[in-house]
Structure formats: C-alpha cells, structure tokens
Structure prediction request, 256 residues.
Amino acid sequence: MYNIKNLTENNDIKTLETLGAFTVIEYQRDLSVMPDDAMLAYYCNEMNVRKRQVICDVSKSNITTQAGAMQWTVGDVNATTGIKGVGDLFGKALRGSVTGESAIKPEYTGSGTLVLEPTYKHILLVNVADWNGSIVLDDGLFLACESTLKHKAVMRSNLSSAALGNEGLFNLGIQGNGILCLESACPKEELVEITLNNDALKVDGNMAIAWSGSLDFTVERSGKSLIGSAASGEGLVNVYRGTGKVLLAPVTKGIA
Prediction:
C-alpha cells in the first residue's frame, strides 16, 4: 500500500481535467526560484506559462507513453516495451522511422500510479471515440495514451503532398477506444474545431494539429491554375476533404 501527500491537494496545484486514467495538474506558481530568475518566473506566471503534469492511474488502464516521458512511479507498476514479437518490433521500428516518433513506446502495467515529466506545453485529453475511433496527429503531439489504442503510420493521400508541403509523407494515427494525451503549444481554449460533412477545409500553413482518420489530407494549389494561385498570394494550401473533424491552432507551430 502507499499514500501520496502534497500533490493534488497542494494549494499551489490545480487539477485541470480528469478523463479515463489521466489527471492533468498545473502548478499555479513556480515556488522553486532564486533571485536571479525571479523576474522571469513572475512574467511567465502572468503570461500563463506554467508547469503542467500528467498523473496516470494504471489500475484503470495500461498506459503507453512517449519514450522518456516517465518521471516516477509508485506501487505495482511495471514497465514493458509493449512488443509482442519480432513482427511487432519490425512494424513499430518501421512506423517510428517514417513518422519521426520513437520506435518503442514503453507500456506501463499494474495497479499503481505513474507520473509523467512536467512540461510547459498544454496538455489535451482526447477521447478517440469522439473522433469515430480514428485520429491523425501532427508531428510531436503524442505524449501518452491508454494501451487499448492502436498506433499506425498514416500515409498522405498523394505522394506530392509531402514534397509540396515540405513535410513528411506519414503521420501518426491512433485508432480504437480509449483516452489520448497530447502535448500542444496551444491551449484548448484557443483551438478551433471544424466539423466537415462531405466538404473540404483549406488551410494556409501547418495549423491543423489533429484530424479524423476518415479525412483525405493533401497539399494543393489554392487556385485552379498556377496563375490563379500566384494572384491570390496564397500558393499551396493543406486540404482536408471528406467527413470528419479538424482541430486548428490559431497560429502555426513555428510561431507558437
């Protein structure tokens, strides 16, 4: 048996959200400061730049995390590679090489508590069932998920998308029923959710952080011709076509 004190009940810690096996906490102030960095800590606090952390109840679900995300565990928690054989290892290594994600994502099993490393990014908890069981992520968003979810490499709808958009050919797709934990440069309050019903969304820039696996993602000219695209001043745009949802950040990740 174990007992955790001075964590979620600490006056300096606020519980932001609980969903499935995950609880997101936020440190309201950085109390571990010295005079040399007190001014920086003050302005960070004023601009909502705060440390956030994820607490995982492993008794509710096995947890899969990004490599290196674990900070500490207590109780009956066992770390495994999540690999179920040579074929599974090869598939995960191949998926990691094309998506840019870590090839091996640790899986934690048992009945204890797992706490992830703190981050200054915003934590988004997503129920994949709300995305009809399939969601595709922009690079670098995945932090953790319930291990009931499956990972796969999702290829662009056409080969020219990667070359024209100056991005990779594959994205990480998550499928199944369970809760997904994402690290975002943009807070949930500023994200725009667009639902398409056999329609198309065109975005000038890499502003979509996640979209339904049912959507076709391509990079196209903004106009019907090269002259038209040049006249509009937009050039190439990311196009999400079909039926599903897209989650948009107000600025590109390069600016955020």
About this structure: The mean pLDDT is 85. The longest strand covers residues 236-248. DSSP finds four helices and 18 strands in the chain.
